[in-house]
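Sample 3 of the quickstart, ligand NAP:
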Amino acid sequence: MAHIIDGKKISIEIKDEVKKEVETLLEKGITPCLAVILVGENPASQVYVRNKKKACEYVGIKSLSYELSSDTTEDELLKLIDGLNKNPEVNGILVQLPLPGHIDEEKILLAVSPEKDVDGFHPYNVGLLSIGNAVLKACTPAGCIELIKRSGIEIIGKKCVVIGRSNIVGKPVSMLLLAENGTVSVCHSKTRDINEEIKNADIVIAAVGKPKFVKGDMISDGAVIIDVGINRMENGKLCGDVDFDECEKKASFITPVPGGVGPMTIAMLMKNCLSACKSQKGV
Ligand code: NAP
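Result:
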């Protein structure tokens, strides 16, 4: 039976480390500050934003909240971001996605100053990530790496298979695994023999967006399975991209859903806010 990686516990460890560093900054008169922008009334986004504000409170980061109506124009949003970019009190800017259809998401993400881009989505930070120099790494991918490393799992030289090539998970997590000296294959919907790829993997990162996509007979004995998927089932329950019950019997380590990768995203966001603040203040 696999060891179940406790993402909740590891995320609290990380938040506690951030909290300690924030206390040191506060003693020096520096208050890290995150601005969170929400446009519209998407209920899932409202929950995410609330959880981000709660995490800020926990670690001692000041949060500024901008909750805008769904008819906010692109220009109004760009103006708000420009003001926050120029405000030296604000260290991180987070625009909660998705945005209403009339707003160009790419334009908005590009407008956030790269040094305040705590989501790590700006092409400048994506570029730094790919050359192995990122300060602000995309939160969910960075969270996957922390889960692996803090569980005592070696990445160096391991065959890592990432299922999914999205800009927010698959691609950045592949780059991070490469930076950790893993040998990385990235699979997607056009991959010819995905079962063969997965069968050969020491570490599998599933970011497909399809419930129970990875079955027990697809993985090798002793594989490490990191499940990024969050799929809401008809019964209202969450389900990952991995068939947990089947894979748990063969894997050496596995993350559950919920309670695996999920809680890590906000913890890494807090870490990014702290890093952004420290690099802006030169401490
Ligand atoms: P996405 O943008 O929909 O990307 C899915 C990827 O899976 C694509 O690259 C797609 O390939 C690939 N794919 C789809 N069907 C496939 C198949 N049959 N065989 C092989 N590959 C296939 O999704 P995402 O944004 O990366 O998210 C992935 C999952 O992670 C979702 O469940 C999402 O909810 C979850 N997520 C969780 C967190 C968290 O905080 N834990 C954060 C972000 C996302 P193509 O490129 O060829 O289409």
